[in-house]
Amino acid sequence: MEVVVRSGVLNSANNCRYAFLNEDNILIFDSLVDPDALAIGWYLNFPTKEQSNNAMETNKSNQKQYAVSACMSNCNNFFAACDSLCLLHLWKKSEETGHWKVLSSRELPRKAQKAIFSNSSSEIIIADRGGKVTSFSVSNHDSPGKFLLGHVSLIIDLSISHDDKYLVTCDRDGKIRVSCYPNCYNIQSYCLGHQEFVSFVKCISLYDEFVLSSSGDGTIRLWNYLDGTQAKSIKIFEDTELIKECASCDNANLEFFENSGNIAITVEQFRFSVRCLKVCFKYQLFAILFYMQNGVAIYQLPNVAEENFRFIQFIPLKSEAVDVVFDDLGNLLILQQCKEELTLFLEYKENEKKYLLKNDYNKDLVFNIKAFYGDGEYFMDAKMDFEHLFKSSYEFSDDTENSKTKPLSKKIKI
């Protein structure tokens, strides 16, 4: 089972460079607000077989090549992308010319699921579709990978602590593992509590060091990762403010649910299963992307121990959100699967504590994104593998004498 994201937008941790991913190429900007930076967008193409130092096997040379994961280093000088041919490509930006140069293309054991840089930018850490995590050196850019750890389930996401001492991985079975880095055979803790797949993890600094996580069970949680205890939790599907705004939009995609197989989840979980989070440290906010809601929810991170996550607003969309990113100033860019309106830009108004649509956002950026994605025909539907991420496709009978499972046959309407 694969969870493929061929397109989207990502940025480095300090919001200095942004990369837009299409099916088979990459567009990088040094800033989303600086007109001079937007005048120069760097296009990165995957190396050919010859440029890859023959790393590409002959039997793969005719297969479709597209990005499955990518990451930007915190120093903003390196960019890495993993493709569908099980290759890891590494680029470096020249200090003299500003151009991006391919350093190497290395073979991966399996197709990648997620790739990140260590905060020191010395290693690229990759989780593959087989549940294994491998690190690759940046300086010794032709060296093979080094095995770090493995899960018995699909690893969906990973993050590394700010001091590069702990590596956090999460999987389809609802587990979050915190391992000492780079000696990942030493397990620091497990953060256990999610009832379904963990879709996102990120190490963040608030009033202490935490891991922020989201799940298909419709919850957002904050963990003390050193001891694995839960600090905060919110059930998104029980948030009355969010539900009220979503109900007025009535945009939950039920057609998928009705045409899919048997999914053993509640209506609320179905509507509010979380695909991923994007964090804005400038305003201590995070944006939620759902699998089944055509919209983005904005929440406030807790600033002190007494606070919990606080709902800010729900931004309805015409179609599915492909991805979102916060720019240098904390404004929100939404990339949606809509030919008529591919991008939306919203400015955060501190006095109103909410995002408002900004129609006069930088026209050069809008033009460049439109030219890069065209009509977005290669955007992948996030719902493609939604059903397969859940641990069970059956509901269990409450009758202990007859404990056999039975498929869900009744269609659920909201």
Descriptive account of the structure:
The protein is mainly beta and about 425 residues long. It is about 10% helix and about 40% strand. It is built from six helices and 30 strands. It has a four-stranded antiparallel sheet, with no helix packed on it. A four-stranded antiparallel sheet has the order 5-6-7-8, with no helix packed on it. β13 and β14 form a beta hairpin.
Backbone structural class: mainly beta
Segments where pLDDT lies below 50 for 5+ residues? 1-5, 393-414
* Quantity of strands, as a count: 30
- Biggest beta-sheet profile: 4 strands, antiparallel
What is the CA-CA span between the terminal residues? 29 Å
Q: Which value, in Å, is the CA radius of gyration?
A: 21 Å
Assign a percent range to the helix content. under 10%
Q: Helical stretch count?
A: 6
So what's the overall shape?
A: globular
Order of the strands making up the biggest sheet: 1-2-3-4
Mean pLDDT: 84
Give the percentage of residues in beta strands: 35-45%
